[in-house]
Design a protein that fits this description.
With 692 residues, this protein is mainly alpha-helical. It folds into 2 domains: 79-493, no CATH class; 500-655, Transcription Regulator spoIIAA, CATH 3.30.750. Strands 7-6-9-11-12-13 form a 6-stranded mixed β-sheet, sandwiched between helices. A 3-stranded antiparallel β-sheet has the order 1-2-3, covered by helices on one side. A two-stranded antiparallel sheet has the order 4-5. Helix 24 links the parallel strand 11 (573-577) and strand 12.
């Protein structure tokens, strides 16, 4: 029997449809009760039906509806997120906590993330303080996170150093400063554009393993770049590990003990205080006080003993930064790739940290609004001599542990930075360079995420491979190459997963009407002559060829050990379970039509189960519903199996009966008892249980 050529009339002779919400079949020969099938409602595809909506129109209509609902207060809070906490501020409850958190982060920020990271970026320490001053005040107004602490960070400082080193020589200090300020402006503009256009989702395509591998490798490079202050001699300025190690070895004869001993002592003290502060909650203040302790100790030793081999920070200008606009944009085009990379880091680190803290503190945070706030902070910061700033994980963690409640803690931190610029810069000139280097090394040591590598090895070898590739290329070929290779492999994995979706052959769990992956549930069984396939992804032009190839494989690869039902020699039905399919495009629909024609030529009937509304509408508009036949679309897999199995059973009866009669006559009416009993059993026992 050719099922692909069955008409509606032929099929309804097996399964008759009623308008009562269920479908009942007449009794097949030997069956006691009919099976029931839920009818599938097909969409209206007539010309007067509602046309398909364009996603962009849906977005615009959603924005328009949202704008109409917004009140004046909503507009103010959208433009100035600080009003969200100002309106509900509880002075008696919040102020003390915000004050302590602001002071704690400020004490941590001045020596560590301001002065130390400015040296890492190849800039005078004063520009680290400038970058920690204006952006903090601006972010407190335009930023939506209440605990995020922004300012210079190690990774961005390394990116700045690497970008400036490729344009200007290290001796051209003025040009370095101008380029760093211009870079902050470009980063701010990119962040604002991405925030306004709500493009933050683009960064989701970069795997976490890429970020972890990149950060770990960068931390190693940062640590090695600071070793020169311990050793007492200059080393090559590079973002690659090989030149750094070679220059360290080549200058070994210039090694000096005093800076090494002082730097090592301060580093040990920092690590111990940080560890104790993490381990014991009542001593967590030690974690924030560690950088200040190292600075005070190093400055005291340098002031008292005046060791000539230990280099000091030197004179630092006193006073607040003045307003100035970048004087030249000649190198803007060259700096764009680095500004894009820093923007990506801002999205991944700052927005990620901010969302995690918001979830922990149970308030809402819009990632695009957060990105816009960071952009405004960088733009206005660049007008006051700041280089790129972003959210700091370590400072934000300290702020959160100090129970910061609102953005007022950031304003207090900014006041501390301002006081340092006004009154403390004369003291900073006695700070040893090795003390600042020890602070940087202590800070970045926690960025080497070997725990993540071990976890990935244990859980997902593919992600571990991605982590290894990214970290290795970053170490040996530089930051830009490492990022490009990591992102490239990350996108390649995404594309591979999309173009080669998971497809499962389904079987029925014993005693139920539930159908599951036969590889995951070995006890599930299939029916002879029927293949049930579930496609676990959207179907579109990139993966339809793979899906068609797999369907052809399933057509011939049938597991004989898990099948039930009448014995047949070939596949007669292919059922596509499409409930996981969220989208299907025109290329995929045309390919499915071609597949249907191939099946029809081989007397195989295609059946489709449970397509969602959008997928069903696309299929209906393409004419595929009429091509396949409305009677071959089902609400449930079980309904499709019942109809297909009835067809297989009827075909088996038609084929088996003449053969039996032929044998009966050939044996002069003396057929074996087993043949007769087998035929009677096939007639009298239904293959499907009837649902109530």
């Amino acid at each position: 029997m050719s099922y692909a050529s069955l008409s509606v009339k032929d099929l309804t002779s097996l399964v008759s449809r009623s308008g009562t919400g269920s479908t009942s079949s007449p009794k097949l020969p030997g069956q006691n009760r009919p099976v029931k099938v839920i009818p599938l409602q097909h969409p209206d595809t007539s010309d007067d039906a509602r046309p398909p909506s364009i996603p962009f129109d849906d977005i615009l209509s959603g924005w328009r509806a949202k704008i109409k609902r917004m009140s004046l207060v909503d507009w103010v809070e959208t433009l100035f997120p600080c009003f969200r906490w100002i309106r509900t501020y509880k002075w008696s409850e919040y102020f003390k906590l915000d004050l302590m958190a602001g002071i704690t982060v400020g004490i941590m920020l001045v020596p560590q993330q301001a002065m130390s990271y400015a040296k890492l970026a190849g800039l005078p320490p004063i520009y680290g303080l400038y970058s920690s001053f204006v952006p903090i005040f601006v972010y407190a107004i335009f930023g939506s996170s209440r605990q995020l602490a922004i300012g210079p960070v190690a990774l961005v400082s390394l990116l700045v150093s690497n970008a400036l080193g490729g344009i200007a020589d290290s001796s051209e200090e003025e040009l370095h400063i101008e380029l760093a300020i211009l870079l902050a402006l470009l980063v701010g503009i990119l962040e604002c554009i991405m925030g306004l256009l709500r493009l933050g989702w683009l960064i989701r395509f970069i795997s976490h393993s890429v970020i972890s591998g990149f950060t770990s490798a960068s931390a190693i490079v940062i640590g090695l770049s600071q070793v020169k202050y311990f050793l007492g001699y200059n080393i090559a300025r590079s973002s690659k590990i090989v030149p750094l190690v070679e220059s360290i070895i080549a200058g070994a004869d210039k090694f000096q003990w005093p800076p090494f001993l002082m730097g090592s002592l301060i580093l040990v003290i920092l690590q111990v205080m940080k560890h104790v502060g993490k381990a014991k909650k009542e001593l967590q203040f030690l974690r924030a006080a560690a950088p200040l302790t190292g600075i005070v100790l190093g400055t005291t030793i340098a002031k008292v003993f005046h060791p000539p081999s230990i280099s000091l920070v030197g004179e630092i200008p006193q006073g607040l930064p003045t307003f100035s606009f970048p004087r030249s944009f000649d190198h803007a085009k060259t700096l764009l790739p680095t500004s894009a990379l820093i923007t990506g880091v801002a999205i991944l680190e700052s927005v990620g940290i901010a969302k995690a803290l918001a979830a922990k503190k149970r308030y809402e945070l819009d990632s695009n609004s957060e990105l816009f706030g960071l952009g405004v902070a960088n733009i206005l910061g660049s007008l006051f001599s700041a280089y790129p700033s972003t959210g700091s994980f370590s400072r934000s963690a300290v702020s959160n542990e100090s129970e910061a409640k609102t953005g007022l803690s950031g304003l207090i931190t900014g006041i501390i930075i301002g006081c340092s610029l006004l009154f403390l810069t004369p003291v900073f000139k006695y700070i040893p360079q090795c003390a600042l280097a020890a602070i940087v090394i202590s800070a970045v040591s926690g960025l080497v995420d070997y725990d993540e590598a071990i976890f990935l090895w244990r859980v997902d070898k593919r992600d571990f491979t991605l982590w290894t590739i990214t970290s290795t290329t970053t170490l040996f070929f530089g930051i830009e190459i490492g990022v490009l290779v990591g992102v490239g492999f990350s996108l390649a994995f995404v594309i591979h997963e999309s173009a080669n979706p998971h497809i499962a052959v389904l079987g029925r769990l014993p005693g139920t009407t539930v159908y599951r992956n036969v590889k995951q549930y070995p006890e599930a069984y299939t029916y002879n002559g029927i293949v049930i396939v579930r496609i676990d992804a959207p179907i579109y032009f990139a993966n339809i060829s793979y899906i068609k190839d797999r369907l052809r494989e399933y057509e011939v690869a049938v597991d004989k050990y898990t099948t039930k039902g009448p014995e047949v020699e070939r596949i007669s039905f292919v059922i596509l379970e499409m409930s996981p399919v969220t989208h299907i495009d025109s290329s995929a629909v045309e390919a499915l039509k071609e597949l249907y024609q191939e099946y029809k030529a081989r007397d195989i009937q295609l059946a489709i189960s449970n397509p969602n509304k959008d997928v069903h509408m696309t299929i209906a508009r393409s004419g595929m519903v009429e091509l396949v036949g409305k009677e071959w679309y089902f609400v449930r897999v079980h309904d499709a199996v019942q109809v297909c199995l009835n067809c297989v059973q009827s075909s088996s009866l038609e084929e088996k009966k003449p053969s039996f009669l032929r044998r009966f006559s050939n044996n002069n009416g003396s057929s074996s008892y087993n043949d007769l009993q087998s035929y009677n059993t096939l007639l009298k026992e239904p293959l499907l249980p009837v649902e109530k």
